[in-house]
UniProtKB/TrEMBL annotation:
Domain CheW-like: 21-125
Organism per entry: Microbulbifer agarilyticus
BP term (GO), one: chemotaxis
SUPFAM superfamilies: CheW-like (SSF50341)
InterPro entries, per the entry: CheW-like_dom_sf, CheW-lke_dom
Protein name: CheW-like domain-containing protein
Signal peptide: none
């Protein structure tokens, strides 16, 4: 471990390719590693959440858990998208399997697409990150956003603890 708290990887430990998914939103797309996605489910109406932020659409029952349903578009300042018949729900791992919120759900505007991402395919893009965004990127010329899963988890838990 180096002095700055960042592990250094030898060149043979850096993955040459990461299987990832492009998750379609009304105003763009998210890029997540394949292992972040737990399941794609049909669009369903969530149980309403009292006095919730606009981006917190309610809660779903999934595998005996109550999952927050998030509109990523609203979280980053866009209007609530129209929910059409092609909409899906992505159940994503928060990356904190032992925490209070191991999964949450995001509304998608279509079906995810598998992409294999190599360092040569990925480039950073300029732009300020809004709430829930970790980084703006370009994947083989397509604009995408890498979500900040920790911030999404924290925002949902903050709302839940406030009621």
């Amino acid at each position: 471990m180096s002095g700055n708290g960042v592990d250094t990887l030898s060149s043979n430990e850096v993955p040459t390719e990461v299987s990832s998914l492009l998750l379609p939103l009304a105003d763009g797309q998210l890029l997540v590693p394949v292992d972040t996605l737990s399941e794609i489910i049909a669009l369903q109406s969530p149980v309403s959440a009292f006095d919730a932020p606009d981006w917190y659409m309610g809660e779903l029952h999934w595998r005996e858990l109550r999952l927050p349903l998030i509109s990523f578009e609203v979280m980053r300042g866009s209007p609530m998208p129209v929910l059409r018949s092609n909409c899906r729900i992505a159940v994503l791992s928060s990356g904190n399997s032992d925490g209070d919120l191991p999964f949450f759900a995001v509304v998608l505007q279509g079906t995810p697409r598998l992409v294999r991402v190599t360092p040569a395919d990925l480039a950073g893009r300029e732009g300020d990150c809004a709430m829930g965004e970790l980084m703006h990127v370009s994947v083989t010329g397509e604009a995408a956003v890498i979500p900040d899963l920790g911030t999404l988890e924290e925002a949902c838990l903050d709302y839940r603890s406030s009621r």
